[in-house]
Write a structure and sequence with these properties.
Layout lengths: L8 H6 L2 H16 L14 H10 L13 H4 L6
Helix pairs in contact: 2-3
């Protein structure tokens, strides 16, 4: 198992396990599906290890879109 995932440092850095998981998934898709280049040297690391190290080195960070409020999402014709 990846050592960084054993401690809560990375979880607290991103604000929770869900956000960590979402960021990992997004970056893995960029690397594997979209063909993005790694931001650090691969040095024999797996894709998951690479993503975790990119997070730890602050090479990637979450860019969450603001949540749409209930009021913003309602169609007034429904009311």
């Amino acid at each position: 198992m990846i050592e960084a995932l054993r401690s809560d440092e990375i979880v607290h850095k991103l604000g929770g396990r869900f956000k960590l998981c979402a960021l990992i998934q997004r970056r893995m898709k960029e690397l594997v599906v979209d063909g993005a280049r790694p931001l650090i040297e691969r040095d024999g690391r797996t894709d998951l290890e690479l993503v975790i190290e990119e997070i730890l080195q602050d090479k990637i960070a979450p860019t969450w879109e603001p949540e749409e409020t209930v009021e913003d999402g309602l169609d007034e014709s429904v009311l």
